[in-house]
Structure formats: structure tokens, C-alpha cells
# Entry
Amino acid sequence: MGTDIRPELSKKNRYWIEKHRYYELKHFCLQYPIWKKAYLALTDLKSRPADMDSFAKFNNLSDPTWKIAEARLYYESRMKMIEDTAKRTDDVIGDYILKAVTQGYSYDTLNVQFGMPCCKEVYYKLYRKFFLLLSHERD
# Structure
């Protein structure tokens, strides 16, 4: 389900980022489903504080409520960063880009299964723009 996009563009391209930075950001985005699952699971931990350790290993606080709140903020901030960057990339294509970067869908899959409303060239231009914007956001 991965895309076949080249990891490195010409440095003359306006959306150029270094190859390893692109891979770093791509793998950051692919963690989105894990964060979402953990974020949702943290709401059910009120009766099982021992389970919290699998999601929230951020500090040595003894207050389970604080640990849950801290962990939820951690996951929420990362998910929101990706979602907001996708929306900033393009109002219409942003939802498709979000699916691509968080679930590994290619243009062809998005086009066939979800009715992508643009051509491949426009999509990959916006896809690269997303990673440039995310790179600035993560700095």
C-alpha cells in the first residue's frame, strides 16, 4: 500500500527536502493510527490504571489522572499537527493526503477507492507540499 514517490527531488524543486528528512516525516505520519488507538484507549483506563503504563511512559508522576491527561495531550498534539498540515496543504485534497500519509495509500488506491478529484501530477505536487509544510512545523 505504499506510494512509489521518489524520496529525493531536484534541489531546484520548490518542495525539496532532504531524502532522510522526508523518510523521517513519512514514518512520523505512519504512526498516526497507533497514536489514535492509544488516545482512544486512554479514555477507558479509569478502572484499570495498571494498563496506563503501556501508553504513558512520560514521567514518574504517581497521579494516574495526570498521567492520562499528559499522554492524551501528547498523542492529540501529534495527530492535530498532521491533520492541520494536511488541511493547510489544500482544502479539497487535504483529506486524501491525510489518508495517504497516515495509512500508506498510493494515488491509484485513493483514486479508485475514494474518487480522488485531481490528476496524479497535482496530487503528488500537493503531497510534496505537505511534507515541506510538515518539515517546517516540526522544526
